[in-house]
Amino acid sequence: MNIFAKVVRSGFLRQPGTVRLIPPEVVSFAQLSSKSAKPPASDALAAPKKPKVAPKITLIALDQSLSIMNLDEAQRISKRRDLKLVKIIDLEMKTQRPVYKLMTSAEYLNEDLKRREEKKRTKAEATIKGDKLLTLSARITEHDLNSKIQNVVKWLRKSYEVRIVISGDGDKAKQESVATRIEQNTKEAGKIVQKRFRDNDLRFQIIPGTPSGTEREQEQPGSPTKTKQNAPVDNVNQSVRAFHTDARLLA
């Protein structure tokens, strides 16, 4: 019978260098244990992944009819009909599906303009500190009207929305005249919105706003910035005139 010999150095042995004989059955069991510790099979043998399916959406057609289909199919329809496919709702709570709408180019432009106006209005409202109420009569004197307009401009410059009520005795022409004076003298600081008549009163709001950069430069014609911008232009014009003068002399 074959016997596998192994030298074991242990402190428990009474004599150093003692040889211990280990049966082959123990060795074969250790080899089997090491083989069983191999890593699992490779990912190549794993089950194949299922192909991705386009999500279901709710589509609103031009005639406002609703249909449920895949997003890929809706994109093909929009290309075939030369329409715009626009997402209206990211995820509808009831159906748990996104909502898309088919639009013509004109409808898409109108919706885009509405979204931009809404964004501007929301941004303007976010910067408004509060509102001020100004009530005056259509028979107000010139001096008092100028004083009221100065107060309105101060409020607008401080980012306050001004609500104005012009009371009258039925003469809408006088009320319109006062409103026009206010609009002309506050257009650099704000914008009039929601102008309407109610109960013989002319009501409107003025939303604060700042002049554009071009208007600010025009308000300061003697500023150093504008002088620096105009200086190179004057030098160029002088060089051009000198060139034409020399050309005439040579001729």
From TrEMBL:
A single GO molecular function term of this UniProt record: ribosome binding
Membrane-crossing ranges are none
User: Per the record's keyword annotation, is Transit peptide included, yes or no?
Assistant: no
Q: Which domain of life is it from?
A: Eukaryota
List GO terms (cellular component aspect). mitochondrion
InterPro entries the UniProt entry points to: T_IF-3_C_sf, T_IF-3_N_sf, Translation_initiation_fac_3
Keywords (alphabetical) are: Initiation factor, Protein biosynthesis
| Bias kind Polar residues: ranges | 220-238
The annotated region (Disordered) lies at 205-238
Question: Gene3D superfamilies of this UniProt entry?
Answer: Translation initiation factor 3 (IF-3), C-terminal domain, Translation initiation factor 3 (IF-3), N-terminal domain
In the record, biological process GO terms are: mitochondrial translational initiation; ribosome disassembly
Homology family: Belongs to the IF-3 family.
**Which protein, by its recorded name, is this?**
Putative translation initiation factor-3
